[in-house]
Amino acid sequence: MKDVSESVVLAGHIDGPAHITGLEKTILIISCQQFRLHDSRNMDVYISCGTRPIIENCRDVRFAPVPEIYVRFLLFQLLSMAPMVQQTLFHGLAHGHDKFPACVLLGLG
Predict the structure, then answer these.
(1) pLDDT per residue over 42-53, tens digit each?
(2) 56 bridge partner residues
(3) Which of 15, 46, 79, 104 has its Cα between 20 and 30 A from that of 28?
(4) Quick check: pTM over 0.90?
């Protein structure tokens, strides 16, 4: 993800690394294996990460754990999508797949 400002970014679970550069005045909610943040400022990061985050050339960045309501929000978003997406979701859940990538970008300005 690169060059996002004045937004709320809800990123779903990422099995690998998340490379993020140039975010400003943004709220980011993310779950990933590895988190890398570069050249970003004035943001709030709600994070669940399998390793220590790598943060370079950033300022005014605040961190907190991913809130429980985030998981509920993603489920609500998926359930409100088209019936074909619902069918795919329930098929995946029925077959033991519990990680679905999702990203919602909401502009604040």
Answers:
(1) 999 999 888 999
(2) 38
(3) 79
(4) no
